[in-house]
């Protein structure tokens, strides 16, 4: 259970930036994964050479923000008005470029990213149940980000302006909103969240080329299940996916073992594990075609 | 109320759809040199049959369409200016809006992903500290229906409710110039009456208004001055009394 | 005469890019050492990127065979690519000297005179691990691998030689990021050791999370070379200390050929080679020996096959010879990751749990 | 309410209910439209008129109630089947195909129902192949139907214009034309005059008048001039309920209706 | 305008004579290569049909490619080797699969549709991975080549090429007719204004389902031909990145352009082949190209070839596409 929730919060952290840029701003930015990767690489590099985790985190934020700034000014800005397909294609192009660029800079081999020395030892969350302390940090950050995003999007004027700009840019401008500037800001915030997620996730996963695409699909799945544009939906969906995925791996084989011969179990169980997340999404969409919490009527 | 200085001043504006920017030429030029000036506190109407360029004029004024030729000034600021083949300069629509121009556009254009209340908060001018400034309470008092529907999304409203919302949204910015393009379309007669009363009040408070509507009788009571458009040109202008008197204008240009 | 042509299908991008890059570096080193020749005859080496996809690899090999008329082939990292490209090569009578994958199919029923499993048969390192665990009287083991045939094969190899209790056999997702659920199962099962086969990023994730969960104090972690070589060490860092692994090769093997290879490799690239590099290097050396044996007459396929099978080269793995199925009969070593005298994290060979070992499939091969 | 005409009415709605969350947008509405009649539906904004049209046309599913046309129970039918059964509609917000020509708009409409497959290609495979592979541009009969439809609503001279660039009034006319293609028994018009000037309103009024011979019409409109000119009967909807029904004069004189809807506006 | 009309047919003619002259030019290998391009072109044309004309951005199209491929594998495994049985069977099974999946997937719209098609394709992928009799993740080697009867089979390069080219040409003819038929217009109508189409009496669901099944079937056929071409099938051909690549091909070629799919397939695969020969970092130039296409040629390469003539029509469908996506 706890593991499922933990994984869910990790997923939310990954999906958070995407929720902003894709969910709220309605820009399908596949390159989000590349920004995530960038964050992880820079953080790992700086952490290793400076010995300070915080320095790595800050450097990741700074570098990714710079890259995002350039990206926004050169490309993404011109994509706001385009359809999703164009956005998918252009940002897919950016992925291809980013992956090769990272490979040129750091080589194809994964990079070392270690957790901060203070957080190496596991903590006993419950008597007899140690939990990795670094993971706790990630969970905490995930919760904070969720809360922050929810407030920003739903309870601030900025959130309203972004949503207005996303659904009807021209009308928002007629109401005096500097849509371009607001969007740039939100894109940068999304990039910062990607960098944060990358820097934080690095120490528990492999920092390597292609890590961005790996998380992109689960993150999109989370968004879609939750209902695009709904922070609450994304949060609940992340937990749901985390739980279902974990159960699919841990409990389904046990359950199956009770009813099927072992040979069949070893064939079927892994299939279920692989399918779980997608089956969940297909089921949700079959009954609620706009996700659990459709934000746009 | 200064009569000398016009709040909005448009000279010889030409504009249209799809034509190459700056060329002034093109397959679908719609406006052929419109002169229009509105003094502060004045209520002016644009009249004319369907498709004569009323909405196009408004879209050009708010920067939604590029100006091919002419000059538009709002207050002290030159909003747009263009000469044939010469340089063009123009403010972006949002900049124009921030000068104090608010519009109730054709087709309402409510935001589907904002609630009713958010429509009224998001763009509100909170700096304005005039006593008479529009705030949430006053807007709800004007349209009690909106209070009842305040948690509905913009697309979960009836047509008329959307129209009310569009008007309230424009008022929430406390604009210097309020532009209404067919703002009573789709409203029940009683509500229409409310709107006319409200505009009357606004006028009395000194609000400057540019209005397009098909209920000419009401406009005659309300407005100071009228411009009649025919195929992108101003073919008549004058005050209400003059328009009342000149039935030939009604027949030739207003289809009545 | 025409140069000897060698087709190299390398996984330079995609999921196996790390192994692919290692292989390429080693091959380039071998080519340099051999002065662009094989057996003293001019040679041409044609490289292409498979992107890790069997379909693309098949395409590339078709081109090698039809357009370039290659005489030898090597390169791919994963088994599925080996299985995909094999038939094309065998049909065109091009010897394939495998620089890494040793699928059981090619060792058993589908063995082919044109396939040389120079590296190892996939299950053997796990068999070595199982053997060692049994020798060490490790009472219970928890097995984990991703859900795909190779994963099952590898765990099968371990089970073949391991005599203790297997508390659980868990299959995760391919490309899994989070292992919290599996680690919870391990904590609950309290095994004496965990044996895992999780190539690439999965292994890195697993080891990091295993150590972070505090399991490394009580549970011994054992694996094959795929998750215990320099690339993984560099990516995981300190937490990898104490990881046991079995492998048919190690960079500290004392034989002269290996010492030369390792020192040349370090000179050229400034790092220790991995087993991907070692076998790719050896594959080129095997071609070199064969071309020398046939005196450059690579069109005489019979002779080339005979020469390849004779394996007239000094192997960097110490003992090496082919069995009937053209898979090696060789030693398997146990290593542990330690800090060496320079303070560098790297493998240290401890023992040889399996000597002159041959794979489990040779009897199914009718060759 | 429906009792008066229950047996003879062409079209009947009985006990229709629709909730949007807690809101009861349609609250037990019963209504009948006789053949050859223009039945106007008026009421304050948000009374549920468009919702009722959406329920009748099948865009939304009702929570309760029954809809019958010419003896056929439409309630379980999907939207497109209701069109086949003789029910057609326009939209409050103009709904056309803005990016193709007027002609293409109309061709689509007649192809759906009016346009029969030529050559008596019948059913089954030949028909499927015809639908799938025959070049529509060569279908002269279809073309002729589209053109005559355009002339009927007064768009004959604008066949090649992109529909989206038409003036507003013409777009409304096109919307009506699209609905007419199905040759419906009952036509639902949701604010056809919306956004029209006096001239266009009059033209639309005239058009609706001519349609009356061929079909019954349920008309929603806030333009009282048009309503009073056209309607045979008027029902007033308030807060999702039918307040009252009656002739033009009865409604006009009804003080309740004046209070909630008509106000003091003078509509001569 | 004239040029754009004739170009495809000239190209087809050149393609037809290619295997006859290839040996004398020393281009034997490219007969197989072009054949592969044609197979992908076919799949891309199917995707273009639903994407360009139906507004359905399916990001799981290679799932159906895989269904076709594994249908062939399953039949071949049990001893059927005739192309005339295998390929139609693959087409039918894939069309059936598409119809079943479409039944659920077509309930959603826009991005949700993109994602649900992706989900189904991923599920198919995992099913294929777990098909142990057919090699699972390792893939399946087709031992017996697919036969065309009269002693000919897929090992005969130019015969196979001819068959593929003929099928491709036939499919393109059918697609081109379909886009001008009642069905095609209805499909575009649904793309542009779905509610209005319902209100006009069109059974929108059935129209989309039919289109989806047709495209799925064509993908299945392409998948089966690909297996015959490679003599090999593996789950990796249905991975989502493959589907994305197919989508990329269509967009590069030109969404909703008659020849958009094939042009895109040819350009993308061709470029991949060329760029790879020069650099290991071949993703980068392709990525740059992709971005450039999106910004400089939003109507794709086929759109560029069409030139400025007939802009109203083309721009209309392109613009309408934007509305639909
Ligand atoms: N987006 C557009 N593209 C091309 N032409 C347009 C477009 N919008 C309007 N037009 C044309 O411009 C002309 C003027 O239209 P405009 O909307 O300004 O008229 P209007 O006076 O506001 O009439 P209405 O009473 O119908 O609103 C009309 O002929 C119309 O067809
Ligand atoms: N999708 C929806 N979700 C929630 N509430 C809705 C939705 N659609 C309509 N409503 C509400 O239902 C009520 C009835 O709306 P409807 O559109 O039927 O009114 P109407 O009588 O047509 O009004 P108008 O004359 O202004 O067009 C309105 O109060 C509206 O806010
Ligand atoms: Mg107008
Ligand atoms: Mg309504």
Automatic annotation (TrEMBL), chain A:
Record InterPro entries: ABC_transp_permease, BCAA_transport_permease
Chain segments annotated as transmembrane: 7-31, 51-76, 88-106, 134-153, 182-204, 216-243, 264-287
UniProt GO MF annotations: transmembrane transporter activity
Chief location category: membrane
Membrane topology: Multi-pass membrane protein
Swiss-Prot/TrEMBL keywords: Amino-acid transport, Cell membrane, Membrane, Transmembrane, Transmembrane helix, Transport
Residue ranges that the Swiss-Prot or TrEMBL entry lists as coiled coil: none
Protein's UniProt keywords contain Transmembrane helix: yes
Pfam families documented for this protein: BPD_transp_2
GO CC annotation, single: plasma membrane
One GO term of the biological process aspect: amino acid transport
Domain of life: Bacteria
Classification via PANTHER family: ABC TRANSPORTER ATP-BINDING PROTEIN, BRANCHED-CHAIN AMINO ACID TRANSPORT SYSTEM PERMEASE PROTEIN LIVH
Protein name according to UniProt: ABC transporter permease
Organism: Hylemonella gracilis ATCC 19624
UniProtKB/TrEMBL annotation, chain B:
Protein name per its UniProtKB record: ABC transporter ATP-binding protein
UniProt KW keywords: Amino-acid transport, ATP-binding, Cell membrane, Membrane, Nucleotide-binding, Transport
UniProt record similarity statement: Belongs to the ABC transporter superfamily.
SUPFAM superfamilies: P-loop containing nucleoside triphosphate hydrolases (SSF52540)
The ABC transporter domain, residue ranges: 8-256
Pfam families per the UniProt record, alphabetical: ABC_tran
Highest rank taxon of the organism: Bacteria
A Gene Ontology biological process term: L-amino acid transport
Example GO molecular function: branched-chain amino acid transmembrane transporter activity
UniProtKB/TrEMBL annotation, chain D:
Molecular function in Gene Ontology: ATP binding; ATP hydrolysis activity
Domain of life: Bacteria
Keywords of this entry: ATP-binding, Cell membrane, Membrane, Nucleotide-binding, Transport
Matching Gene3D superfamilies: P-loop containing nucleotide triphosphate hydrolases
InterPro entries from the UniProt entry: AAA+_ATPase, ABC_AA/LPS_Transport, ABC_transporter-like_ATP-bd, BCA_ABC_TP_C, P-loop_NTPase
ABC transporter domain residues: 11-264
SMART domains found in the cross-reference section: AAA
UniProt GO cellular component terms: plasma membrane
PROSITE patterns: ABC_TRANSPORTER_2
Secretion signal, residue range per the UniProt entry: none
Keyword Membrane: yes
Protein name per its UniProtKB record: Putative branched-chain amino acid transporter, ATP-binding protein
Species of the source: Hylemonella gracilis ATCC 19624
Taxonomic lineage of the native organism: Bacteria, Pseudomonadati, Pseudomonadota, Betaproteobacteria, Burkholderiales
Automatic annotation (TrEMBL), chain E:
GO-annotated cellular components: plasma membrane
Residues passing through the membrane, by range: 33-51, 84-104, 111-128, 158-175, 207-228, 281-305
Assigned keywords, A-Z: Cell membrane, Membrane, Transmembrane, Transmembrane helix
Keyword check for Membrane: yes
Gene Ontology molecular function: any one: branched-chain amino acid transmembrane transporter activity
Keyword set includes Oxidoreductase: no
Membrane topology note: Multi-pass membrane protein
Localization per record: Cell membrane
Signal peptide bounds: none
Protein name, as recorded: Branched-chain amino acid ABC transporter permease
């Amino acid at each position: 259970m706890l593991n499922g929730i933990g994984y869910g919060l990790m997923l939310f952290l990954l999906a958070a930036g995407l929720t902003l840029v894709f969910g709220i701003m309605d820009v399908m930015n596949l390159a989000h994964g590349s920004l995530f990767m960038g964050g992880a690489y820079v953080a790992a590099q700086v952490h290793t050479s400076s010995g300070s985790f915080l320095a790595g985190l800050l450097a990741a934020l700074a570098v990714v923000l710079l890259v995002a700034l350039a990206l926004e000014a050169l490309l993404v800005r011109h994509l706001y008005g385009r359809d999703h397909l164009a956005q998918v294609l252009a940002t897919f192009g950016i992925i291809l470029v980013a992956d090769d660029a990272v490979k040129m800079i750091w080589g194809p081999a994964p990079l070392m990213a270690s957790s901060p020395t203070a957080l190496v030892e596991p903590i006993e969350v419950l008597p007899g149940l140690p939990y990795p302390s670094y993971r706790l940090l990630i969970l905490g950050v995930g919760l904070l980000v969720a809360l922050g995003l929810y407030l920003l999007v739903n309870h601030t004027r900025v959130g309203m302006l972004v949503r207005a700009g996303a659904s009807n840019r021209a009308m928002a401008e007629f109401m005096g909103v500097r849509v371009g500037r607001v969007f740039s800001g939100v894109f940068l915030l999304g990039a910062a969240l990607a960098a944060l997620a990358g820097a934080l996730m690095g120490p528990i996963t492999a920092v390597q080329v292609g890590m961005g695409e790996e998380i992109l699909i689960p993150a999109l799945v989370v968004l879609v299940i939750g209902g695009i544009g709904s922070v609450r939906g994304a949060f609940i969906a992340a937990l749901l996916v985390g739980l279902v995925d974990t159960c699919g791996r841990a409990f389904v084989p046990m359950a199956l073992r009770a009813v099927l011969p072992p040979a069949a179990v070893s064939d079927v169980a892994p299939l279920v594990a692989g399918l779980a997340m997608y089956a969940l999404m297909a089921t949700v969409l079959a009954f609620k075609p706009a996700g659990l919490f459709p934000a746009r009527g | 109320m200064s009569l000398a200085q016009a709040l909005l001043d448009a000279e010889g504006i030409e504009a249209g759809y799809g034509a190459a920017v700056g060329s002034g030429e093109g397959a679908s030029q719609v406006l052929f040199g419109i002169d229009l000036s509105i003094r502060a506190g004045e209520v002016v109407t644009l009249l004319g049959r369907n498709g004569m360029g009323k909405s196009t004029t408004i879209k050009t004024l708010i920067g939604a369409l590029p100006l091919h030729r002419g000059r538009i000034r709002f207050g002290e600021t030159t909003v747009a200016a263009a000469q044939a083949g010469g340089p063009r300069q123009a403010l972006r629509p949002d900049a124009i809006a921030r000068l104090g121009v608010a519009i109730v556009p054709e087709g309402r254009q409510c935001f589907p992903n904002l609630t009713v209340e958010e429509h009224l908060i998001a763009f509100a001018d909170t700096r304005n500290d005039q006593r008479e400034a529009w705030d949430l309470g006053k807007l709800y008092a004007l349209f009690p229906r909106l209070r009842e529907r305040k948690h509905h999304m913009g697309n979960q409203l009836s047509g008329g409710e959307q129209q009310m919302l569009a008007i309230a949204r424009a008022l929430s910015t406390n604009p210097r110039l309020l532009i209404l393009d067919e703002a009573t379309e789709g409203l029940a007669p009683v509500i229409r009456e409310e709107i006319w009363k409200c505009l009357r009040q606004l006028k009395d408070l000194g609000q400057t208004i540019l209005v397009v509507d098909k209920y000419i009788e009401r406009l005659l009571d309300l407005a100071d001055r009228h411009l009649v458009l025919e195929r992108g040109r101003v073919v008549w202008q004058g005050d209400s009394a003059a328009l009342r008197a000149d039935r030939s204008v009604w027949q030739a240009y207003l289809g009545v | 005469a025409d140069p000897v042509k060698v087709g190299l299908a390398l996984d330079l991008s995609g999921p196996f890019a790390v192994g692919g890059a290692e292989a390429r570096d080693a091959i380039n080193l071998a080519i340099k050492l051999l002065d662009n020749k094989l057996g003293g005859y001019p040679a041409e080496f044609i490289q292409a990127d498979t992107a890790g996809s069997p379909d693309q690899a098949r395409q590339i090999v078709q081109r090698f065979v039809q357009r370039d008329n290659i005489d030898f082939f090597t390169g791919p990292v994963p088994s599925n690519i080996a299985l995909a490209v094999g038939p094309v090569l065998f049909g065109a009578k091009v010897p394939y000297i495998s620089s890494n994958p040793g699928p059981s199919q090619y060792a058993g029923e589908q063995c082919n005179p044109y396939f040389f499993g120079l590296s190892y048969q996939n299950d053997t390192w796990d068999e070595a691990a199982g053997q060692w665990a049994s020798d060490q009287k490790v009472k219970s083991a928890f097995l984990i691998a991703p859900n795909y045939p190779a994963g099952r094969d590898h765990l099968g190899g371990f089970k073949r030689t391991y005599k203790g209790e297997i508390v659980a056999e868990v299959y995760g997702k391919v490309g899994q990021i989070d292992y919290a659920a599996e680690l919870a199962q391990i904590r609950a099962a309290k095994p004496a050791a965990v044996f895992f086969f999780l190539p690439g990023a999965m292994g890195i994730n697993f080891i990091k999370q295993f150590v972070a969960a505090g399991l490394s104090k009580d549970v011994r972690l054992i694996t094959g070379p795929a998750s215990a070589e320099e690339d993984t060490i560099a990516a995981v860092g300190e937490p990898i200390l104490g990881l046991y692994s079995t492998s048919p090769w190690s960079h500290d093997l004392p034989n002269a050929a290996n010492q030369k290879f390792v020192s040349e490799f370090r000179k050229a690239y400034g790092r220790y080679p991995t087993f991907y590099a070692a076998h790719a290097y050896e594959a080129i050396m095997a071609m070199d020996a064969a071309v020398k044996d046939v005196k450059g007459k690579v069109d005489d396929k019979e002779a080339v096959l005979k020469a390849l099978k004779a394996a007239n080269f000094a192997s960097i793995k110490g003992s090496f010879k082919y069995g009937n199925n053209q898979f090696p009969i060789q030693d398997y070593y146990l290593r542990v990751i330690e800090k060496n005298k320079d303070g560098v994290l790297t493998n240290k060979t401890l023992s040889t749990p399996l000597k002159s070992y041959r794979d489990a499939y040779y009897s199914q091969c009718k060759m | 309410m429906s009792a008066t005409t229950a047996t003879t009415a062409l079209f009947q709605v009985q006990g229709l209910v629709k909730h949007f969350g807690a809101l009861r947008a349609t609250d037990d509405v019963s209504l009948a439209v006789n053949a050859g009649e223009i039945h106007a539906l008026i009421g304050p904004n948000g009374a549920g008129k468009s919702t009722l049209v959406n329920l009748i046309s099948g865009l939304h599913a009702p929570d309760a109630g029954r809809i019958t046309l010419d003896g056929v129970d439409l309630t379980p039918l999907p939207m497109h089947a209701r069109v086949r059964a003789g029910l057609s509609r326009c939209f409050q917000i103009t709904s056309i195909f803005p990016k193709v020509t007027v002609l293409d708009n109309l061709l689509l409409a007649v192809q759906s129902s009016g346009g029969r497959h030529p050559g008596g290609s019948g059913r089954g495979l030949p028909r499927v192949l015809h639908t799938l592979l025959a070049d529509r541009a060569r279908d002269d009969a279809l073309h002729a139907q589209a053109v005559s439809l355009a002339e009927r609503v007064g768009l004959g001279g604008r066949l090649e214009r992109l529909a989206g660039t038409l003036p507003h009034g013409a777009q409304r006319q096109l919307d009506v034309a699209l609905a007419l293609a199905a040759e419906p028994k009952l036509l639902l018009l949701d604010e056809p005059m919306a956004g029209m000037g006096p001239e266009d309103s009059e033209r639309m009024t005239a058009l609706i008048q001519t349609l009356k011979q061929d079909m019954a019409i349920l008309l929603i409109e806030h333009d009282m001039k048009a309503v009073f000119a056209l309607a045979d009967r008027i029902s007033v909807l308030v807060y999702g309920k039918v307040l009252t029904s009656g002739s033009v004069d009865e409604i006009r004189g009804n003080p309740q209706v004046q209070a909630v809807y008509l106000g003091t506006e003078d509509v001569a | 305008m004239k040029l754009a009309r004739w170009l495809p047919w000239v190209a087809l003619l050149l393609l037809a004579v290619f295997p006859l002259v290839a040996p004398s030019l020393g281009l034997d290998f490219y007969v197989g290569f072009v054949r592969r391009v044609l197979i992908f072109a076919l799949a891309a044309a199917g995707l273009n049909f639903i994407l360009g004309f139906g507004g359905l951005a399916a990001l799981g199209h290679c799932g159906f490619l895989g269904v076709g491929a594994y249908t062939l594998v399953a039949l071949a495994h049990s001893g059927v080797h005739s192309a005339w049985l295998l390929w139609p069977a693959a087409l039918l099974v894939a069309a059936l699969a598409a119809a079943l999946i479409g039944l659920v997937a077509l309930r959603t719209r826009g991005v949700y549709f993109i994602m649900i098609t992706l989900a189904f394709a991923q599920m198919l992928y995992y099913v294929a991975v777990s098909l142990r009799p057919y090699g699972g993740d390792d893939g399946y080697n087709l031992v017996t080549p697919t036969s065309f009867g009269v002693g000919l089979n897929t090992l005969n390069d130019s015969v196979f090429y001819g068959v593929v080219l003929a099928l491709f040409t036939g499919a393109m003819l059918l697609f081109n007719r379909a886009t001008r038929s009642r069905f095609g217009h209805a499909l575009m109508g649904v793309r542009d204004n779905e509610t209005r189409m319902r209100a006009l009496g069109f059974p929108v669901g059935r129209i989309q389902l039919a289109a989806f099944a047709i495209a799925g079937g064509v993908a299945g056929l392409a998948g089966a031909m690909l297996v015959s071409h490679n003599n090999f099938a593996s789950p990796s051909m249905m991975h989502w990145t493959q589907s994305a690549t197919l989508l990329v091909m269509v967009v590069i070629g030109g969404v909703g352009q008659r020849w958009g799919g094939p042009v895109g397939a040819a350009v993308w695969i061709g470029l991949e082949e060329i760029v790879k020969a020069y650099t290991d970092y071949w993703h980068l130039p392709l990525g740059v190209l992709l971005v450039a296409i999106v910004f400089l040629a939003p109507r794709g390469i086929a759109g560029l070839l069409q030139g400025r003539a007939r802009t109203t029509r083309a721009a209309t469908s392109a613009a309408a596409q934007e509305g639909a996506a």
